[in-house]
Design a protein that fits this description.
homodimer, 356 residues, alpha/beta, Rossmann fold, Isopropylmalate Dehydrogenase, 2 domains, 14 helices, 11 strands
Chain lengths: 356, 356
């Protein structure tokens, strides 16, 4: 069966300028993929040009009249934008027409609408935003990256379960290791919540490494780093900031004289390989884990290449069967999870959505 | 008047092997400095060799019989190690014999003992660990880096005040800008505590920029980044991790073939300049701010060069009059601070020390 991806074509800072060319390139590269493009029909037709007929059997356009603004309040987007490209795209997954949805839109609105439309999986209280990042040894999955500001020990355990299944699916490691992000300062070893979470992880059947520190993320000490969304978001942005600073220093030093410039030209092949390895566009595409459907969030400022990689990420995760694996694990390990009755969970869900 | 620094010579992973040569190099470089070396007298004499007579007028040795272990519980170190090099070194500052104390020892014990011996400044409830880090535009001061796991909005304001005065003193900027570290995820803009702190900063006469994100640290968006100690510690360690990963990638790519190695040789001058700019040893020396005395914490694993830079940092901060500036500000702006009576503060201090 072909993999079908629903794409919120109107999303991101650059909208169709970026999303449509990325989709066309993606169709060309992956002959087993079908794309559903959701957005303003006329605009899509205008941007897609000749490719429409070329890929007519693997390309569907679904018209929508609204767009969720990048800074729109999630609760307003949810209430007033029922015909937005974002919502209609998510509906494709809910209706079983697509295996995953990709959007470069407003993160808060995407999370709120996806959660409302798709609901959280049985056994998961809070979805988390997860991302793969480069390390010295391969890739690491970090979560949560900002879906929740504060996380209970139980939530952290659920993040650990989700991250483990994601890494198992995409890296084929039989038992990915998990660490809880903590501080190593000798005086006080972390929050109370982390201590409790550590106990829960120890009792679980996850491959628990123990607590890790900030430098362990890119060292590749573990396959999965679990943290609350506040800490995870700060760490993720900090990584971006350091990488930019170092690139800036390299550029500055390699262009500060004619001789330096000559060295840059000579070393170009090596410098380019390093640049390629660090290119954040290759790591574009965070996944909203814990929902009954695969939702991929591209960076809002993504260019064509970056958006292409978000599509790749979605494709790869559908192909690897991430959600099936996670669902299977949750069904088999109910003892690890809170046995909240559904009415309580619905209430929590409702409260969360009101908080937005 | 000569600047006098008290050095806990027995501290750090490498002890006298590192601290003594760094002190000798420092004396040679700075003819206006006097050092008090605290530790086992015989060991010091053995390691210092001929330099003792050479710098006899600027070098004093104070004997101590105990050493605080790197992993010793702070409360035990405080109770049982009254004749430790760390404690005697801190006493030098308390007794007015030295302007600052430098130790590469156990952070928790250093904080606990320094806090007990020197007490917090009037107006400051909690000391913070602050560090200068490189950015695209110069340097940024980040605090707290782990002295406190959780921080109230009032504590964050106090960190902002301390960071501002530190940067004013060392960079001579008339009005350093301050940002509160937060997350930019659209759905939920940070903890309640950060929202309250934002209000306090707005009302203060600090040069408040607003909230910043993780990537703003190394972008140099602001001069001072304020955060709780948990987040700060994670960010600091994450920065170290990314820098190591990128160095690793550069090294790997520049050594993976004979041709690459040749390029590395040709580009050496430029690569070396970048390496110099990023050398974490140059940024060694965090300051425990908010105490009645200047306490500088060197990285435990510091080598001779790194420990030298921690001495430089202490020298620079004494020279810049950081504590006087901070004390002056606190006296002039009592309206910004909680008017806790001293008994309450003593109680909090006692509670804190018991927590360790």
């Amino acid at each position: 069966m072909a993999i079908v991806l629903a794409v919120d074509i109107m999303s991101g800072d650059h909208g169709v300028n970026v999303t449509v060319p990325a989709c066309v390139a993606f169709l060309q590269k992956n002959p087993d993929v079908k794309l559903i493009l959701i957005g303003d029909r006329d605009t899509i037709y205008k941007y897609i040009g000749n490719s429409l007929s070329k890929y007519s059997d693997r390309l569907e356009v679904v018209h929508s009249t609204q767009v969720v603004d990048m800074d729109e309040a999630p609760q307003l987007a949810m209430r007033n934008k029922k015909d937005s490209s974002m919502r209609i795209a998510i509906n494709q997954v809910k209706d079983g027409k697509a295996h995953a949805i990709i959007s470069a839109g407003n993160t808060g609105a995407l999370m709120a609408i996806a959660r409302y439309v798709l609901r959280t999986m049985k056994g998961i209280d809070r979805p988390a935003i997860a991302k793969l990042l480069p390390t010295i040894k391969g890739e690491v999955c970090v979560l949560d990256l900002g879906a929740n500001v504060e996380s209970s020990p139980e939530h952290l355990l659920q993040f650990g379960i989700m991250g483990t299944q994601l890494m198992k699916a995409v890296t084929h490691k039989p038992s990915p290791s998990v660490g809880i992000l903590n501080i190593g300062s000798e005086e006080i070893k972390g929050h109370e919540g982390i201590k409790k979470a550590t106990e829960l992880f120890k009792k679980s059947n996850l491959n628990f490494y123990g607590n890790v520190e900030g430098d362990d993320i890119n060292k590749g000490t573990v396959d999965v780093v679990v943290c609350d969304g506040f800490t995870g978001n700060v760490a993720l942005k900090t990584i971006e900031g350091v990488a930019k600073m170092i690139s800036f220093f390299l550029k500055e030093e390699f262009t500060n004289s004619t001789l330096s410039k000559l060295m840059a030209v000579i070393s170009y092949p090596v410098l380019n390989r390093v640049k390629q390895r660090l290119d954040p566009r290759k790591y574009n595409g965070a996944v909203l884990l814990g929902l009954n459907g695969l939702v991929i969030k591209s960076h809002g400022g993504a260019d064509e290449i970056a958006f292409y990689y978000a599509l790749e990420q979605a494709y790869h995760e559908v192909n690897a069967g991430v959600l099936n694996l996670l669902e299977g694990f949750l069904n088999q390990h109910k003892e690890l999870l809170d046995d909240k009755d559904d009415s309580k969970k619905e209430l929590a869900e409702f409260k969360y959505l009101n908080m937005l």
